[in-house]
Structures are given as structure tokens and as C-alpha cells.
Amino acid sequence: MLEINKKILFFKIKEIWFADKPFDVDKFHSVLFRACKRNLDVSGFEKKEFNTLIIDLNQDLNKIWENMDKSSCRYSVNRAEKQGLIIKINQNYKDFYQINRLFRKKKKLSQSFSWNLELMEKYGTLFVAEFKGEIIAGCLFLEDKDNIRWLFGASKRLQADKTKATLIGNANHLIIWQAIKYAKAKTIKEFDFGGYYLGQDKEKERINRFKKSFGGKLATHYIYEKFYSKLLKILWKTIKK
Predict the structure, then answer these.
(1) Domain identity same for 58 and 47
(2) Structural domains counted in the chain
(3) Which of 60, 149, 150, 236 could form a disulfide with 192 if both were Cys (CB 3.0 to 4.6 A apart)?
(4) Is residue 36 located within the same domain as residue 76?
């Protein structure tokens, strides 16, 4: 289980990841449980289903590799290694933070993003890809002793020419593969791809194809949320709309 404390304005928010079930907390204005595997009805908590892809890390590493798509995923990993890409762990947080800000701007996503540099450094496990001294892509993960979850990724793909964009695509595959090997070495049990879209959106379907190429299996997790502050609940509902 991983507990993350956040502050938005004067509101104190606790996020809890990988808990067995939701429970009340003291001295916070709200609590949010993510990546819960049990489907429960708990008084006072709102529940939502969340679809994701999971790789069982109890499998042999060679078996995990064999389950990955040969023509796209494994080819890209092998290509990235031959191209001399370097994967660095828990370094270059500032570089990744800036890449993520520009990436979100290019994709016209909100810049009021709750994961600032301080939170990334304190709670996240960061994998970045470096090519000839330049950080070109990265992914931030959350982990506890049994789970590792892809939280979000960003790259310089949207500002690159075709050749560099292909290189970055290979880098993204290599990052995930290295994260899987990292988790396997730590005897973590499950690798969570952080979501799988079950609708019709071309951009999200493209992300689905990328995730699915690693051979994960579809799973349903649950999000539980409880507000102890009526004002925060109203504010949060308004922001979501």
C-alpha cells in the first residue's frame, strides 16, 4: 500500500494506492483509494470501476517476453537497444517534469496537473530514455511491495520529425520492458498499465494497442472516494464538469 498526501488550496487530500479495501482517515478533507482489487459497497464511499491491463510477474521473464507482440513490441525493444538508447531510473526528474508540461500543452491537456515535481520525486519511480545525452521520453510509476503501476508518460514525440518520432516510439517500448524487468527483480507480483479504454476514441485506441502489445490481461479494479468537506466536494464536482 502506498499513501500519498496532497494539498490543493487549503484542502488536504490523501490518495491511497493498492489497498485491500477502503477505510476512513483522520485530519483530511477527502480520501481517494485507487487500484483496489475488491468490489465492495462501503458506507460513505463512492465507487467506480476502472479497466486496466495486468501482467502477472510471477511468470518466468522469458514467458513474459514471449507473450509480447513480436512484430511491434519486441522488435521496438530490440531496435531501441541497438540504437544505443540508455534507460535511467530515478534520475532527471526536472527534465521529465518539463517534458511532461510541454507534452500536455501540445496535446491541449489541462496544465492544472496535480503531480508537481515535488510529488514526483517523493512518491514516483521514474524511468527515462536518453539518446546522445538528451532525455527524449519517460514514464512515472507508483509501486509498493506487490504492485507497480504506470501512472503517466510523456515524450518529445509531438515536436519531433518522423525519424526521431520513430526513435522515441522505440524508447517508450524499452522503458516499459525495463520497468517490467525492474519490478520482476524486486519480486513485485503485478505490473499494471494504468488503464485500458473500452470506448471509441482513435487516440485512446492507439494507446490501447501500445499497452496490449506487451501481453497483459484485462482486469477490473475499483476507485473509492469519500469527502469529509462539503465545500471540497462541490468544488471537485465543478472542476470535473
Answers:
(1) no
(2) 2
(3) 149
(4) no
- Is 104 found in the same domain as 36? no
For residue 33, what is its C-alpha cell? 483509494
* pLDDT at 170 > cutoff 70: yes
pLDDT band at 203 (very low <50, low <70, confident <90, very high): confident
Mean pLDDT across the stretch 152-173? 94
Considering the domain architecture, whether residues 193 and 176 belong to the same structural domain is answered as yes
Residues 37 and 58 in one domain: no
E strands, the chain, where? 2-8, 11-17, 30-36, 46-56, 86-89, 125-131, 134-143, 147-155, 190-192, 217-227
The confidence score (pLDDT) of residue 113 equals 65
Give per-residue pLDDT as tens, 68-97. Answer: 999 999 999 999 999 999 999 999 999 999
Residue type, 77: V
In which domain, by residue range, is 20 found? 2-51+221-240
CA–CA gap between residue 188 and residue 209 (Å, rounded): 24
Q: How many angstroms separate the first and last alpha carbons of the chain? A: 30
